[in-house]
Amino acid sequence: MNNKILIITHTGDNFSIEKVTEYIGKNNFEVIRFDVDLYPLKNKLSTTFQDGKWICILETPEAKHRLDDIAAVWYRRAYNMGSGLKEEIDAKFYGPAMGEIRTTLFGFLESIDAYALGKPSVYRRLDSKEEQLKIADKIGFKIPETCITNNPEEAKAFILKHKNVVGKMQSGFAIYEDGVENVVFTNVIKDENLEELDSLLYCPMQFQKRIEKKKELRVTVVGQDVYAFEIDSQQSEEAKVDWRKDGVNLIDKWIRTELPKDIEEKVLELLDVYHVDYGALDIIVSPEDEYYFIEINAAGEFFWLDNLTEDNLISKSIADVLCDKAPRRNNMVLA
């Protein structure tokens, strides 16, 4: 029996990996951990086709593992791959080498002929906030009025029509200035910002009508298991527009909640459409109790919510899906 689960992550990942690993062990499966920041300097990966057979070997500082006969893979994170390489090779080779490292690693992940919880191509598809909104709208979710543009005139017309508007980037990132990390959050567009819209020409933005919040939901879905948590983000001045701005102070104020049946069905339908078994959704509940879909994060963080469940149930669900002990959406390369 194939009882090996491959986890793709990095050495700085949080303890959720340990929790999932613990539950995988209870299911009588073993974990092979591939830290991508140790690739290629400390982790060696080889795929060979000869004598009519494919063989794949991962050699870590601790052990040598066969990867062509794994039962499943959890592609969680691919942070800091090629760590330390810059100091090892001539600067002119660094860019091309990193290109090959990424292509090789992602090519390997894409080709794994076993059940995968997450894949580079799946994450890339879910990067499209525009497709997310279109699908959510099609399956009957309420979504905010939205304008994605690099045209200052279009943006201005949208803002003047809807009056109360937020602006956000479509990808999460930080700007580093003098060694200080400035994370770019969602912000309300004020009158003085209208003068700055000309800079849109250089970088598009997403604008949405601001939805008043009774509460915010983070809904983590694993297979068919739905874990919904709510926060009253309006209790903190910092968090009113974007709860992440005061995320640390709110971390233990999330409360487990139940979704209305029709909303839960739409959440599961969204994962059916994308053919994925993991997603972390952001939903706003308005004072009128209307549920607005904001976005789905393909590999959104879950550890702080997992800690609020009895016995880290989200980690257990992930382990059960990986070990085929819970219903899952089949996505093998050659099923």
Question: Can you walk through the features of this model?
Answer:
The mean pLDDT is 90. Helices cover 27% and strands 27% of the residues. Strand 1, helix 1 (16-26) and strand 2 (30-35) form a beta-alpha-beta unit. It is built from nine helices and 18 strands. It has 335 residues and is an alpha+beta fold. The chain folds into three domains: 4-118, Rossmann fold (3-Layer(aba) Sandwich), CATH 3.40.50; 145-209, Dna Ligase, domain 1 (2-Layer Sandwich); 212-298, ATP-grasp fold, B domain (D-amino Acid Aminotransferase, Chain A, domain 1, 2-Layer Sandwich), CATH 3.30.470.20. It is globular, with a radius of gyration of 22 Å. A five-stranded antiparallel β-sheet has the order 16-15-14-17-18. The longest helix is centred in the N-terminal third of the chain and has 21 residues, at 91-111. It comes from Chryseobacterium piperi. Residues 4-118 form the MvdD-like pre-ATP grasp domain. One of its GO terms (molecular function) is ribosomal S6-glutamic acid ligase activity. Pfam families: ATPgraspMvdD (PF21068). This is MvdD-like pre-ATP grasp domain-containing protein.
Helix and strand element order? EHEEEEEHEHHEHEEEEEEEHEHEEHH
CATH architecture of the largest domain: 3-Layer(aba) Sandwich
End-to-end distance: 18 Å
Classify the secondary structure makeup into a structural class. Answer: alpha+beta
Count the domains.
Answer: 3
Question: Can you tell me the CATH class of the largest domain?
Answer: Alpha Beta
Query: Spatial order of the strands in the main sheet?
Result: 16-15-14-17-18
Question: Which fold name fills CATH's third level, the topology of the largest domain?
Answer: Rossmann fold
Mean pLDDT: 90
Query: Radius of gyration in whole Å, from Cα?
Result: 22 Å
Largest sheet: 5 strands, antiparallel
Q: Work out the strand percent.
A: 25-35%
Helix content: 25-40%
β-strand number: 18
What characteristic shape results from the CA principal axes? globular
Low-confidence stretches: none
> Tally the helices: what do you get?
9
Protein name: MvdD-like pre-ATP grasp domain-containing protein
GO cellular component, one term: cytoplasm
InterPro entries: MvdD-like_ATPgrasp
GO molecular function: ribosomal S6-glutamic acid ligase activity
